[in-house]
Amino acid sequence: MKRISDIGLKKLKEFEGLRKEAYLDAAGVPTIGYGHTQGVRMGDVISEYWAEMFLKADLYDVEKQVNSLGDWNQPQFDALVSFAFNLGFYKLKTSTLLKTIKNGGSMRAIKQEFMRWVWAGGQRLKGLERRRAWEAKRFFEADEMEAMKRRDWSDFHKV
Predict the structure, then answer these.
(1) Is the dihedral of CA 143, 146, 152, 153 positive or negative?
(2) Of 110, 129, 140, 150, which is the most exposed, with the fewest CB atoms less than 10 Å away?
(3) End-to-end CA distance of the chain
């Protein structure tokens, strides 16, 4: 089973942020740790250790679900795990984003689909814009690296 990379995990933790006391997220859902929502009640408090444990358990479930959707390269997998972790697997599974990817949509079309998911609680959020922009960029990183490898660099030093 493919797992999120260190790059993906670091970015996911950065986007989620560590909160040791329960709070209501932008959609009004009680949340704690690194975006953990299951069984959370306002007033709950946890340690960093338990935040990490919840994150590992939550990620394991999301990773299994994203693996079930196809054979992804690592950057694609990281992007889709971040997306599903944030929005829920059902939203990814039924999204036009996934349909566009599966139907061989262009880079532009796929990036546009990522950027449609920047709303929470009826508001466009800068944090979600940053997250979706990173996911869209990460999704295509392997393609960009392959293109760089194939590029003819023989004229690079000529002026």
Answers:
(1) positive
(2) 150
(3) 48
